[in-house]
Amino acid sequence: MAFVATCIETTARWLGTSYKEVYQRMKRVNLIEQYILPHYETLHTESREKLAEGLVECMNNWEAKK
User: Which of 8, 11, 32, 66 has its CA at a distance of 20 to 30 angstroms from the CA of residue 52?
Assistant: First the structure.
């Protein structure tokens, strides 16, 4: 779960918003359970910048589908 916390905090910094807001957004679209955790092996090898960029893109795409 430490990696999930890193993802949330890094994404929040990238967006210039609070980690609470990012967590709620990710939770609404089930991004943590359906994307971050299953793809841990790949995601944890990326830089924080690349990680945040990818997570923001994914989160926006998933939100648009809901």
Answer: 66
